[in-house]
Amino acid sequence: MAKVKVPRKSISLDMTAMCDVAFLLLTFFILTATAREEEPVVVDTPGSVSETVLPDRDVLVISIDKDGQVFLKVDSEKTRLAMLDKMAGRYQVSFSEGEKNQFRLTEMFGAPIANLKNVLHAKGRERAALQKGIPTDSLDNQLDNWVSYARLAQVETFGTEQQLRIVIKADKDTKYEVIQKVIDTLMKQNLNKFNLITNLEQMPAGFGEKKSH
Questions:
Q1: For residue 30, how many C-alpha atoms fall within 13 Å in the half-sphere facing its CB?
Q2: Which of 180, 158, 173 lies closest to 74, judged by CA?
């Protein structure tokens, strides 16, 4: 008796609804995403063979360009807002809610507190041109105050278990005197442990090997 073959039917799926959902999600992410602002300074770091990996959060980065201008970067928006309020109170500078929101979105900055309002109102290259570095001189060491208030704001916001880790990122052509001034500022606050950002280079052949006698 011959077998009866069941005819095969092709399966078709209507992808219209799924495509609509995908486009809606894509549109949502595009409209709600915030473009990351370009950093106001480019630092060409020196090379080293250190393989220490820095954390991606709870970090305060002090950047120094080749001209010796100092910039500050704090990753937490809450910490940035809190330290701005403390600096504003110390230097008697008032910031509007719009200016505070701009500062909250600004990861890196480098300007005297008196000129910070102008920086926050500027855009793009104009903003970068207005930033000539945070003062570090002995008469008005604003870097000292920024670091101190940043550490205090971080602890008040997240607790002692998430204290800021201090990192120095200096250009390879930066004069040593400028870097020493920054280090002295940190040591003034008993910050004797910090990291230096460098470009990873290949370890020389035989480096670290024990010599036989």
A1: 6
A2: 158
